[in-house]
Amino acid sequence: MTAPSRPIAISFDNVCKAFGNTVVLSDFTMEVLRGEKIAIIGPSGSGKSTLLRILMTLESIDRGAVTVDGDSLWISKGGQPSVQPNARGVRAIRSRVGMVFQSFNLFPHMTTICNIADAPINVLGVPKAEAYERARELLARVGLSDKELAYPRHLSGGQQQRVAIARALAMRPSVMLFDEVTSALDPELVGEVLKIIRNLASSGDLTIMMVTHQMGFAREMADRVCFLEGGRLVEQGPPEEIFTNPQNARTRAFLRAVLEAQ
Amino acid sequence: MDFDFVFAWKILPTLLYATRITVLATAVSFVIAIFGGLLLFSLRRYRWRPLASVVDYLTEFVRNTPFLVQLYFAYFIGPQFGLDLPPLQTGILVLAIHYSCFMSESYRAGLEAIPRTQWEAGVALNYSRLQIYSRLIIPQAIPIIIPNAGNLLIYMFKDTPFLAAISVAEMMQAATRIGSEQFRYLEPITICGVIFLALSLLSSVAIRMADRRFGAAWR
Known about the structure:
Structural class of chain A: alpha/beta
Shape of chain B: flat
Distance between the termini of chain A: 30 Å
Largest sheet of chain A: 6 strands, mixed
Number of strands of chain B: 0
Largest interface: A-B, 27 and 18 residues
Helix content of chain A: 25-40%
Strand content of chain B: under 5%
Helix content of chain B: over 70%
Mean pLDDT of chain B: 91
Number of strands of chain A: 11
Number of helices of chain A: 9
Strand content of chain A: 25-35%
Oligomer: heterodimer
Order of helices and strands of chain A: EEEHEEEHEHHHEHEHEEHH
């Protein structure tokens, strides 16, 4: 499917995860190549968001292994619960991964520009002038140069989400995770956010994993579409294949239901 | 009984002098309570559950027993347990402990008001634990804590007359002494009330200013 020379950016190897009695991921195995753009679709509760949250270290796993750029985030202990490497290792992996959330999660007490520049200054140690200059570039890239000194509550949902994307990019991640980033937006604001992600996807070697309900967008942006259900990877393939000729009956049923609703 | 302004004028300096003690007790106790509350709050969140639970129960105990009882206990029974302080120091200590417990509740309310997602956003940007607290959580909690703490300051101030019960020479004690010596209570007690009112209003203004300075820009 993809040239074999491309290294593996992310791997899930037989990952199991349950919240109490609810199984979220069950023997989940998947690999993502560097620079690949993945769209993850599936019914709610299928484990899509959990997948991203595990990569962002916001969620633990019960069994199995996870690697990012070849480094272990979770190490399999066979039948025993998986373990994480030391804190420094986890932080090193985290520094390569950026995430944009459904509910934006901007810092309400900081202006737009501070939201973007604060982590580079305080986490990466970038000099202030440089961090602010780069924050301005990013703001221009998401079309919000005039909102530099606005606080999040003065911005629309779409604008907040664009700032959140700029904020994540400011940390120069090699993997970007988008967790239903347009689900909380009014319909007329979805386009402006998708436009930014489209630009990101087309311009570069960023690895992207995107959980989405926007089937049209998934089809246009993704190299590969993964359909999850019940904590398993039911079907995956190039968008044309998944959307025009899905092999699995459950994929067909899901797509039919979603497309009917849209 | 008519209000005697000449008499009132004559006793005003004595009462104002005693006000110093009232203000001193409030200020010192409040500063201790700010830090004491933080300490109690941290202990109640301590990972070692037994300690956290003990502090939890102690806090609840103090919050649910009358201040005057605690004051009497410390002053009259304290010496048997080696706590042998002069009245003013005892009063300040008990005020500070009593209000530390309420302050710890204010901190809890402030921090719990910050949604979990803020923490997650901090993790996603690779902030350290300490930075998540110092740069994200606490700055957002402070504007919630300030009005709460401000109310506690005023309650505390209004609780200082209790210290008269263990013979601290604060304003109320001075007023009742004048009353019993001159057989006139109207003027000294009225003046006391007015001084309390004036100082409480002054604190309210100060709290509102602090509130405006530390929060309104982004809320």
